[in-house]
Design a protein that fits this description.
60s Ribosomal Protein L30, Chain: A; 19% helix; 175 residues; four-stranded mixed β-sheet
Length: 175
């Protein structure tokens, strides 16, 4: 049996991703978060099928940058509470990614790659809505996997992230 996947037609609303910048001059049509630096170029080569959702096929990183690699963030509150609803877990995991970025003096705009692990059936439409609202116009590289289980049976979502930002002399709270 073969499957055919349709690319999101709305992805064409982001033409800046074909080539974000060339040389030292940022592409004027690039989203605001990419205009401040030429260190990241997100692309979707025309030689391969368009992305199946709101992500980029590749990210090229150049220049002097600092990297942040996050362990898998789960959908748990700081108090250790874990909601039953997987979409609530998904939202909390995204908030935990954002909190880690902030602790390192970074922002969601610094994301390069997300890897999302899901256990069981999780409403695709609601998950995509939640992710789209969190990412806004961002299109980092992304992989979504359905797995048999995570560290404990009640965990339904885990998100790993990789980010980079320009070298700075000051770093966030480092907590």
């Amino acid at each position: 049996m073969s499957f055919r996947y349709a690319a999101l037609s709305t992805y064409t609303e982001f033409p800046a991703y074909a080539e974000v910048s060339t040389g030292n001059v940022p592409n004027a049509s690039a989203p605001d978060y990419l205009r401040w630096s030429t260190m990241k170029a997100f692309r979707n080569p025309s030689q391969i099928a368009a992305p199946l959702a709101a992500y980029s096929h590749q990210a090229e990183i150049t220049g002097s940058v600092r990297w942040l690699v996050l362990s898998g963030q789960v959908g748990m509150t700081p108090a250790g509470e874990l909601p039953d609803d997987p979409i609530e877990q998904f939202g909390l995991a995204l908030e935990n990614v954002a909190a880690n970025l902030a602790a390192a003096g970074m922002r969601p705009e610094d994301l390069v790659k997300l890897t999302i692990y899901l256990v069981g059936e999780i409403d695709l439409h609601r998950r995509r809505q939640r992710l789209s609202a969190w990412l806004n116009d961002l299109r980092p590289c992304m992989t979504v996997l359905t797995v048999a289980g995570l560290a404990t049976p009640d965990l339904r979502v885990e998100i790993e992230a990789i980010a980079c930002a320009e070298e700075t002399s000051t770093i966030g709270s480092q907590q």
